[in-house]
Please model this.
Amino acid sequence: MPQTEIKCVGSSTFGRYPKISLEKTYNMFISDEWLVSYPGFKKVLELNAAVEGRGLFHSIRGGFLVYVVGASIYKITSGVGSIRVGTLNSETGEVFIDENLSSQICIVDGIDAYIYNWNLESVTAQNFTSAPGYVSYHNSNFLITSVPSAALPQNWYVYKYSTDTTIEKLAANVGGTFSIQTKPDVCLAVHRIPGRGNNVIAIGSAVAEVYTQVGGTENYRRNASFNINSGCVSVSTIAYADTMVCWLGQNESNSPTIMFTNGAEVQNLSSDGIDFQLQEIVHPEDSTAFFYRQDGHLFYQLTFFNAADNLTLVYDFNTQKFFHITDSKLNYHPARQVVYFEEKTYFASLAEGSIYQMDSSIITEINTVGDTTGEDIPRIRICNTVRQRTTLPFRVNLFTFVMEQGVNSFPKLLVDAVSCTDIMITEDGGTMISEASVEMLGEEGVCATNVERPCVDMSVSKNGAQTFSNSVRRYLNAQGNFRNVINWHRMGFANEFTIQLRFSGMQRFVINDGVAEIST
Amino acid sequence: MTYTVNQLVSGAFYASGIVSREFETVSGQQLTDGIDWLNEVLDEKTVDMDLIPYESTYDLTLLAGVEEYYIADLIEIDTLTFTLDTVRFSVQKTPRDQYFGVNRVNGISSLPVRWYMERELGGARVYIYFAPNDTYQAEIKGIFRLSSVAQGDDLSTTLDTFYTTYLRYALAAKICDEYSMPVPMGVDKQLNKYQALISKRSRPLDLHIRKQSTLHKPGPGIWAQASLYRGYMP
Model:
């Protein structure tokens, strides 16, 4: 009987329309040609659940984190202890943070700049003439831009240490002020280019320019032979790692696309599908992004958190593929800024004033500090659509794929267990005692089967991935039962056939490609 | 236990592999088509009598002077008898050429001696000779068409489980044919098995030997028989 490959291992390919491709992968990524779970996350610190986490920064020199929650600035110390160190004048929106060599951490919230001196444990608002929009440290100075509504939004400025609690702008005649030149544009952000020494990139809304610090009174010189004909949709999407800076780009004539540069050349992560997907974003300005390395994979995670968009994509630079990432409720992933601190990865939550730890060893979303189990994160794979070149119909007699089983913490004895909770009533505080095999009757009890039993739900589409059928479940083996065959039989008659797999359970999932037996 | 036409048609669609039992349900159009095709399968048995598992008894009232009787759904007669007082008399089957092709006296009313059956649309026409001289209650043992079915009919009241299972596989094969798909190997195997069981065991071949003298050839019945002993030959 003819067999056709089903790509259970794959990425999100963003077909322009479902008929072209609906291949998507949620909360999984490809590792050594196997599909594995994307890291889960657990809450390790809750400061204020009512406000958003605005920024998280790791002070290398200080050995602590700076966490901005609502209007409050916290110092997060070893073991995720928190100390409130100051207050901002604003309460919402992402903040940008960087540190210089003088124990000064500059926090920019789009209204003011603040200097947190961690030696003095003081936070001081700076008296800037125009509202700062972005800050980055480079060669002992802070490079700061203005917000687009400022008087001279095309400018970016160099600030140096002034006092322990203040910084000051260098004078224009000694290289303190620069402006976007190659286009009539605003300057949204300036950031050092990783691995490029004296080079920084100034990103506008429609163009980006590379500057080199040359010293002297000139200070920075624009690279006259190179610029990038794309600006930035949102400064929150600017992220850097290894040797590149990445952002959600656009210009005056092109729709959003993901750009990255190493300062010498620029590339965009463009395809018909992803560009179409990004064009469909209603509020690209409500976005955030960061680089994140996990298990050797370098991810660029981009989130559009407006309710109208509600989307998180991650690009794996190792495999050069996109994946969809969500929380346990299939909403956007809550991570805003990620830091690596004391051998752990933490992120600030977009949704609330909490810090989460993110790791491959965490398989669920744990929203209570101290808990070990949490909400199941849905792992979904929508596979390739199978068609015949002749478009003639066929029958799908069998679908099977390779996956790891028996590695969960779901004990065998509980496979069919029913747990009951009953109210037991005694009088006058009397002790209730039962001897072996003697039943005790309760009142108003509730019984439930164990819903945590790991399983795979499969549904199929026979209309070009426009709609999917009901799900048919296969339960996975209990702990220690590694040998397995997982399959579904007799899936009917179709001339195009798409499989959707949904993996549920408190365990890791390791998936390889599958095969469908078809008859024509 | 109730087993409806809908269940049989759905089961056939599942067995055919056209509709998935777990992922889909049989659509309304498919159910309608399936019932039509099931009735075609049932109707095929009209010309493939081996696959009708049941013999039936039909009470026929022979009327004085009437030679022809149309009986709906009749396919094949095994025996035809009538009762006079408390005695059952057999009526002999006569080949077509001997019934219609030999000399005989018409207009005689007496005890029925011979019969001949012709298939017609929706049933069969039975010819009786002599035309009965009185009203007699006759009994036909034979095979009748399987009734057509409609949505929601309960098949468990008219067919045994083995036969509904056979019909399910037969309909599955027909569905495959209608969808231009090959019949699944398992369905084909089961269908052949049930066909063999039903045709050979449900209606076994009658291999009893009946001796017939080569020196005597019975005629169509003569006037003397009718007049002297009213056609009856003990």
